[in-house]
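Students often ask why inverse folding is considered easier than folding. One informal answer: many sequences map to the same fold, so there is more than one right answer. In these notes we will look at a single instance of the problem. The structure comes first.
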């Protein structure tokens, strides 16, 4: 069953403007984005938020369920859906952790790329620091 546009609009309208949340139709359901970060989904008129440690700490004891068969569990938000302040803060902490995790992944990928280039060039860590590169 596809989600109803009125429900999607209701959820998005609950959130503060600084959350910058948009809903994008995906396969009959909706992906939720805070800026460019995927933070959750609305499937079968139920709100799912991507699980993060910060979100878990904020919620306390979250209900977890997959948004669709075969998907990883997400936080199923039922009770707090009408509390705009609470829901906005959940989106903020979730988006912040996702942004931090993406930055760490990008840094690690850059470090790995630089190490591979150094190995191809025959440099060792001592060579790199001697030439001012770390």
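Output (designed amino acids):
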């Amino acid at each position: 069953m596809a989600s109803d546009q009125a429900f999607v609009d209701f959820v998005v309208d609950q959130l503060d403007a600084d959350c910058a949340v948009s809903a994008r139709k995906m396969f009959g359901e909706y992906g939720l984005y805070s800026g460019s970060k995927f933070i959750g989904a609305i499937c079968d008129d139920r709100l799912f938020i991507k699980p993060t440690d910060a979100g878990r700490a904020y919620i306390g004891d979250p209900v977890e369920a997959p948004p669709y068969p075969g998907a990883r569990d997400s936080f199923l938000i039922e009770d707090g859906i009408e509390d705009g302040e609470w829901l906005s803060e959940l989106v903020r902490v979730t988006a912040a952790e996702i942004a931090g995790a993406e930055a760490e992944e990008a840094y690690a990928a850059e470090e790995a790329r630089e190490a591979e280039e150094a190995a191809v060039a025959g440099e060792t860590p001592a060579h790199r620091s001697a030439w001012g590169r770390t």
